[in-house]
Amino acid sequence: MQLRYNYRVYPDASQRRALAQAFGCARVVFNDGLRARREAHAAGLPYIKDADLQKQVITAAKRTGERTWLGDVSSVVLVQSLRDLHTAYRNFFSSVTGKRTGPKVAPPRFKSKRDNRQSIRLTANGFSLRESGRLYVAKVGDLDVRWSRPLPATPTSVTVTKDAADRYWASFVVDTEPDVLPELGTETGIDLGLTYFAVLSDGRKVDSPTFLRRAETKLKRLQKALSRCEKGSKNRAKARTKVARQHAKVADRRRDWHHRESTKIVRENQAVYVEDLAVSGLGRTRLAKSVHDAGWSQFVMMLEYKALKYGRHFGRTGRFEPTSQVCSACGVKDGPKPLSVREWTCGDCGTVHDRDINAARNILAAGRADRLNACGAQVRRAPVPAQRREAGTHRDGQPTVVGIPVL
Hints:
By secondary structure, this protein is an alpha+beta fold. The protein has helices spanning 13-42, 50-59, 75-97, 211-227, 234-268, 279-282, 288-294, 296-309, 355-372; strands at 2-10, 118-123, 127-129, 135-137, 141-146, 157-162, 168-175, 187-192, 196-200, 205-207, 271-275, 313-317, 343-345, 352-354. Helix content is 39%, strand content 17%.
């Protein structure tokens, strides 16, 4: 299985300039390739093949006077940037034809130097790990890396990223074997919410940390200072960086907390079941800020890949399962209830239920039923893609950190 390991990088002034040049060249090659394919499509010409596009926007472009500076950066960076464009087109075509499940994928769009996130990706030909502990990047130099933990294997690729808070990161992709834990006899169902972040079927309630809510006072002050700065000034750039760094702190705290809680749940249970929530829909309601502050999608994703990593079972129950309407003791459906009702008594068996604990127990029962009723057995362990993203075509509205380390 593939895992991503993320480390902070501290380049010096000359290395920052070299990285900025690499970011710009990768962006230009990506935009040139996208423009060439759009123009060919508008003219009714066939789709330009990957090899032909590489010859056009890299090999031939280096010989022209307008693009001679493409030779100042590693060719691996340019080739991988075009590969990102190929991947974006394949995902778009697969989504249009129905081969790709999930939300529809939009066609690739042009990158901007004002994007919050700039990145380059290199394969094994473009980087190496020195014995001194530094990371060598072709035509950039030896980067100082803070090795918070050792790599479990030799990395196959690295993505060097600069985020909105002007921080540099090196994200390594490694192929590792699953670290299977001893089998346990415990299973749990998890009901995610806002009053409590998670309620487990054994009755344990996990309080919601609300990292964004606690940081709102400082964010409001920094945002007000940013709005008062003149556009295009250096003071505005400094104020923008301060706002981005505060948002990055909130995201880092939330991610660290998610890691600790998800690891604890996976280690203590042989099987974990959660409800498939429509987070994107809930994010458009009056509870949007609280929903995004909770970060349910990130937490569930961590549960899923850590369950595969440690040899546990992970399951999702249908989002239309009436978990809050069914009595977990006798199975009688008591009908829908408003959110203000936190406790209710079953009219058939007389059991008094806590709404969230009852829902968690029903999620556990539904997950067990789906697992027992599944047709056939999985012969091979499901592949796990590298967590979070490579250098891609999507632009973020929020400052983020590339990669999710596995705890």
